[in-house]
Design a protein that fits this description.
heterodimer, A: Heat Shock Protein 90, 15 helices, 10% strand, B: alpha/beta, Rossmann fold, six-stranded parallel β-sheet
């Protein structure tokens, strides 16, 4: 899975992506909403598909290399189209490969400039470049969400979920490692700058200066760090929200949309009804699960009954209207009644011709009572066909084994009602 | 069934689902005069007070308070309007809530058109309409272990009422209940109305709590 999404990610950017983009559309629009000076960096960043922070830092570094950055900025400002609104770049994010490409181009440019002596000196440019890279590492955000979408879709096509928690941990460790790494690079830049601009005899003074600088940074950076932490929190909340939405979407996709597709293709109204019913149960269960179930016990009469009725609804395309009074944990006696109800429901579904069967189950401390009723064709109790008799016997037998009783009331044209009753022992 | 006839009953429909609204209008249009419809609580209250219908069909689930809010606010100003609640969810909390706010009946949205027409008539005549599920809820709620300080008048079901409710829960129509118990349909209606009154007025604490706890149906 990873290699495939990697190649996918690489393809659009490619090696010479920036040059190609420049060739296709030489003009870019300055950004009206993402600007520090004239919106050149913001517009350029959007055009290149990278984080504007990288572009800004590149301008700064190049400006120190003999002022080339300043000239470049002015030229780009002059040839750029009038200001337009760009997508907020920190939301759009940037592609990792493109960013690396941009950074490589800047470094290459620096080397060329150094070779041609358009240069303010190694002691200035390299430390600043180092610090710039560090800063970029802290600030730049790559387009993580887009990559994730891609891999998610891929996972789903392969019919499996993905390990979100692992990736989430991965992401947050990157954020932390990034801050530390970036910070170290910035400090290294400062140190190199100080070290190369102060003569070797004053190392002690340099250490003091460094300490002062660090203290100053802490003072300046404290609130900023606090803000960053808050930002990370907000980002995390947003990520969780996105993931939740994805999960809902995935669930709906796997259940509701599939069922709707099946229903559209189904010719048989009974089957459609059954599919809709089953889906409704499933969705309802998913929506309310864990949010307020009675004492959190999942072995409830209502669950056991649902399992039975769902199977019958799906198999026979009927609707079972269930009413349960005294919902509680299932024991062997209760289960025997539920099983017998299942047989009675199947019987009704097969023979009564009714599309709706009513099921009523009442459980008290003393006994279990159930009624299965249909308003179908009914039958004459004295002239029972053998197949129905068989089922009736098995229901009666089951009840008898549990010390209970079963009574069947039916008349031709008047529907059928089966009454089941089992006393509950102190089991 | 009975031939479609406009008996002059004025019906108002409140539901935030367009599709359902259109469906109900089509089903009821030949039997009643549909005097208005609304899709949210505010416009429903205003519309009902303006149109003064006999019966309001109200969806339990709506943003900003749901059907219960509509029932409460209208009844405060116009106590003669009768409400029949319709719901997709069958969650005890919602059903008990809307009944206790003053609705005269509750049916599930899967009800057949003929049954719906029948239910509207019944509510219009001042009777209560209990679906099997609502009957089950009431039995369940009134079977809980009872606290000492109960008003027997309001907080307990009589044996007969219990019998009637049990039959309704088993899927019997009022007529079938009547013949099963060898009483008249009118007597069945009286029992059900009496249960409805108890359901609305009983101050059994656990009635609400019970409904809240029992979310899954």
């Amino acid at each position: 899975m990873v290699p495939i999404s990697r190649t996918e990610a690489t393809r659009p950017s490619g090696g010479g992506g920036d040059a190609g983009a420049g060739g296709r559309a030489p003009l870019f629009a300055r950004s009206s909403n993402d600007r520090v000076i004239a919106g050149v960096a913001g517009g350029l960043a959007e055009r290149l598909g990278i984080d504007p922070v990288v572009v800004r830092l590149a301008f700064v570094v190049l400006a120190l290399a003999g002022g080339v950055g300043v000239v470049l900025y002015l030229v780009l400002w002059a040839i750029g189209r009038a200001e337009t609104e760009t997508r907020p770049a920190w939301r759009a994010g940037g592609d990792a490969q493109r960013t690396v490409a941009a950074v490589s181009i800047v470094i290459g440019t620096l080397l060329v400039l150094r070779a041609t002596h358009v240069w303010f000196g190694d002691a200035l440019v390299w430390p600043v470049a180092l610090a710039a890279v560090g800063s970029a590492i802290i600030w730049v955000r790559f387009d993580r969400s887009r990559a994730r979408d891609r891999s998610n879709r891929h996972d789903r096509e392969n019919g499996r979920g993905d390990d979100r928690s692992a990736r989430q941990g991965d992401a947050s460790s990157i954020s932390f490692g990034r801050m530390v790494g970036g910070g170290l690079l910035v400090l290294a830049g400062v140190a190199v700058f100080l070290a190369s601009n102060i003569s070797s005899g004053t190392v002690g003074a340099v250490v003091v200066a460094l300490a002062v600088a660090v203290a100053g940074l802490a003072l300046i950076g404290g609130p900023w760090i606090a803000r960053l932490v808050r930002q990370l929190g907000a980002e995390r909340t947003e990520r969780i929200r996105v993931e939740e939405r994805e999960e809902v979407a995935a669930h709906l996709h796997d259940s509701v949309l599939q069922t709707l597709a099946l229903i559209q293709r189904s010719e048989d109204p009974g089957r459609m009804r059954a599919l809709a019913r089953v889906q409704e149960r499933d969705l309802r269960g998913w929506l309310y699960r864990g949010s307020g179930a009675v004492d959190g016990d999942r072995d409830l009469v209502s669950d056991a009954v649902d399992t039975v009725t769902e199977r019958i609804e799906l198999a026979h395309g009927i609707r079972v209207d269930t009413v349960i009074v005294g919902d509680r944990s299932v024991d062997a006696r209760v289960q025997s009644v539920i099983d017998a109800c299942g047989e009675a429901l199947t019987n009704a579904a097969k023979h009564s011709g009714a599309s709706v069967v009513s099921l009523y189950v009442e459980v008290t401390d003393d006994d279990v009572t159930a009624f299965v009723r249909d308003q179908g064709v009914g039958f004459d109790a004295d002239a029972v066909p053998p197949d129905r008799r068989g089922i009736a016997d098995s229901i009666l037998g089951r009840m008898a084994r549990n010390g209970g009783s079963a009574e069947i009331r039916s008349a031709p044209g008047a529907g059928t009602e089966i009454h089941l009753h089992v006393p509950r022992g102190e089991a | 069934m009975t031939p479609p006839s406009d008996d002059g009953t004025r019906v108002f429909v409140v539901d935030d689902h367009q599709l359902f609204l259109a469906g109900v209008r089509a089903e009821l249009g030949s039997s009643f005069e549909i005097v208005g419809q609304a899709e949210d609580v505010e416009s429903a209250v205003a519309g009902i007070l303006r149109a003064k219908p006999d019966v309001v069909l109200v969806d339990v689930h709506m943003p900003a308070g749901g059907g219960a809010a509509v029932v409460e606010r209208v009844l405060a100003a116009e106590p003669d309007v009768r409400f029949l609640a319709l719901s997709m969810s069958d969650a005890a909390e919602d059903v008990i809530g809307v009944i206790r706010s003053g609705a005269r009946g509750y049916v599930t949205k899967t009800i057949s058109p003929a049954e719906l027409v029948d239910a509207v008539r019944r509510v219009h005549e001042g009777d209560a309409v209990f679906s099997p599920r609502l009957a089950g809820f009431v039995l369940d709620a009134f079977t809980d272990p009872q606290p000492a300080e109960l008003d027997p008048e309001l907080d307990r079901l009589s044996g007969r009422e219990r019998e009637v409710l049990r039959l309704i829960a088993r899927g019997y129509t009022y007529r079938e209940v009547a013949s099963e118990l060898h009483i008249s349909v009118k007597t069945v209606e009286t029992h059900v109305s009496s249960v409805l009154r108890k359901l609305q007025l009983s101050n059994r604490h656990q009635l609400t709590r019970w409904a809240t706890e029992r979310r899954i149906v």
